[in-house]
Amino acid sequence: MILYSYWRSTTSYRVRAALNLKGIAYEQRAVDLVAGDQRTPDYMAVNPAKGVPALELEDGTLLTQSLAILDYLDARQPEPPLLPAEPLLRARVLAVAHSIALDIHPVNNLRVLGHLMGHFDATSEDARAWMCHWMTEGLTAVEALLPTRADFAFTEAPGLADLCITAQCYNAHRWGLSLDPFPKIARVEAACLALPEIRAAAPEAQPDAP
């Protein structure tokens, strides 16, 4: 498998962590989002949406969108599972994952910041305030959805919600948002980063990190 990713991409972080946890071998190909690699004709043939991650399977099939890729990986190799089998618990895990992937991330990415700064004269401080505002809104909801536990979000091992939370926490640290108001989220991040498979997926551990 070939994973097209960018070291700082939280969506790529989710997929790297899942591949590592499942023990699936993959090669990484860096797509430098700051340099504009995602807009080259060659990469647009891989992912017409001009984003990361994209996963190329052994037969050349290309998959895009991190949640779709994670769903494929879980179906292909069910152990360890990213989603619980019990329907109600599964719905709760998905609610947290979707709160991050569908509520926070769409307004907290490089394309949105570029548009704000390029077309609406937003300053660097405006960009930071924008990022922190939407993260605070979204993480407040996530914190309320999480049960009180000692380790991972819902189960005894990391799953889809945990991977989404941990990647989003990286973005919070990057933009200077304190996790003090979110003790359950901080607990999940700590439990995940204690695992070597997830630490190996962290942005600073990637070959394209500066």
From TrEMBL:
It comes from the Bacteria. It is an enzyme of class 5 (isomerase). Residues 1-81 form the GST N-terminal domain. One of its GO terms (biological process) is L-phenylalanine catabolic process. One of its GO terms (cellular component) is cytoplasm. GO terms for molecular function: glutathione transferase activity; maleylacetoacetate isomerase activity. It holds the Pfam family GST_N_3. Its EC number is 5.2.1.2. Residues 86-210 form the GST C-terminal domain. Keywords: Isomerase. The keyword Isomerase applies. The keyword Isomerase applies. InterPro entries: Glutathione-S-Trfase_C-like, Glutathione_S-Trfase, Glutathione_S-Trfase_N, GST_Zeta, GST_Zeta_C, GST_Zeta_N. PANTHER family: GLUTATHIONE S-TRANSFERASE YFCF, MALEYLACETOACETATE ISOMERASE. NCBIfam families: maiA. This is Maleylacetoacetate isomerase.
